[in-house]
């Protein structure tokens, strides 16, 4: 057997981490983690159910919100199996191919979320800056094409990543920093030249999240200019719907940038920092998005109140 302090073409398995030194407490640590997964799924399934059953919500804004909810569910399901294995059963080995597959879907759903947030910004831009043509521009076929384009763009761009990793040789050890497979984390274990991987990874990030965030910022500059120049009652009402979207943008991009900074500059950071930043990046957006839209969106509030009132009357 080749020792891990030498160079190998590829490890058979990677070792996932919970919190080193607290393995005895992993069961207890898993309780709040599992609670967050449950809240994320319940919240997003509730949003989907409300939008599906309430015909008044069959509008472009809520169709995009449905895409966001579906993506959040898929993103949490991508990492749930390995998290449970690590924290419940201390089964921290993952086959290299399974790791690359999880990495592909994790980054894929993350980039899809960025693109959906851009589509939601486009929806708010049209609703406020060109309200008379809102329904004629964002028709059902157009929304479907946007959804398909988002999936194709993100999935195709990420296809080379696993194959670029396959050609590399690994050394030192096979221990990752999270309970899931993350591309920058895997690159840390490589002892070959990773410039191609790093450049392509940066290209994918700039071409997706970078362009998306810039376009979102530009759309809100135009929205603010429109609202301030002609502050009609309808435009102010429409701008109020932007608050929940702005919150969703912030709770997605801030953890993403935080995790990237930790992997880029936090080489000597304690393991708990990787644990916290990784789980904030994965769980905070899916947990908070349904809460934000339930609190800040009057239509969803009315449906929820009607459901709760109906249940209380039945009791």
From TrEMBL:
Lipid bilayer topology: Multi-pass membrane protein
GO cellular component entries: plasma membrane
Transmembrane segments: 27-50, 62-84, 104-122, 142-165, 199-221, 242-266, 272-292
InterPro entries xref list: GPCR_Rhodpsn (IPR000276), GPCR_Rhodpsn_7TM (IPR017452), Olfact_rcpt (IPR000725), OR51/52/56-like (IPR050402)
GO terms for MF: G protein-coupled receptor activity; olfactory receptor activity
KW Protease (keyword) present: no
One example of a Gene Ontology biological process annotation: cellular response to lipid
Domain G-protein coupled receptors family 1 profile: 43-293
Keyword hit for Cell membrane: yes
Compartments, record wording: Cell membrane; Membrane
Family: Belongs to the G-protein coupled receptor 1 family.
Protein name: Olfactory receptor
Organism of provenance: Geotrypetes seraphini (Gaboon caecilian)
């Amino acid at each position: 057997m080749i020792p891990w302090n030498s160079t190998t073409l590829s490890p058979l398995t990677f070792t996932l981490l919970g919190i080193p030194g607290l393995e005895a407490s992993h069961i207890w640590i898993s309780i709040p983690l599992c609670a967050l997964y449950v809240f994320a799924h319940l919240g997003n399934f509730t949003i989907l159910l409300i939008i599906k059953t309430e015909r008044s919500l069959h509008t472009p804004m809520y169709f995009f919100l449905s895409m966001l909810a579906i993506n959040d569910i898929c993103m949490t399901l991508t990492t749930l199996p390995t998290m449970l294995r690590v924290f419940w059963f201390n089964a921290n080995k993952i086959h290299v191919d399974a790791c690359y597959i999880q990495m592909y879907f994790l980054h894929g759903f993350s980039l899809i979320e960025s693109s959906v947030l851009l589509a939601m910004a486009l929806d708010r831009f049209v609703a406020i800056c060109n309200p008379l043509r809102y329904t004629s521009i964002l028709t059902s076929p157009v929304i479907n094409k946007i959804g398909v384009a988002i999936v194709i763009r993100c999935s195709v761009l990420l296809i080379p990543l696993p194959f670029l990793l396959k050609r590399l040789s690994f050394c030192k050890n096979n221990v990752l920093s999270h309970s899931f497979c993350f591309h920058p984390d895997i690159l840390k274990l490589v002892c070959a030249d990773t410039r191609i991987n790093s450049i392509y990874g940066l290209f994918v990030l700039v071409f997706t999240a970078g362009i998306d965030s810039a376009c979102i910022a530009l759309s809100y500059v135009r929205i603010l200019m429109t609202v301030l120049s002609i502050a009609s009652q309808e435009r102010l009402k429409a701008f109020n719907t932007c608050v929940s979207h702005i919150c969703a943008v912030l709770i997605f991009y801030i953890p993403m940038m935080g995790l990237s900074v930790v992997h880029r500059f936090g080489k000597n950071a304690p393991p708990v920092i990787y644990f916290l930043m990784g789980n904030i990046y994965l769980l905070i957006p899916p947990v908070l998005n349904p809460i934000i839209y339930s609190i800040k969106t009057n239509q969803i509030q009315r449906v929820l109140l009607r459901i709760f009132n109906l249940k209380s009357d039945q009791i």
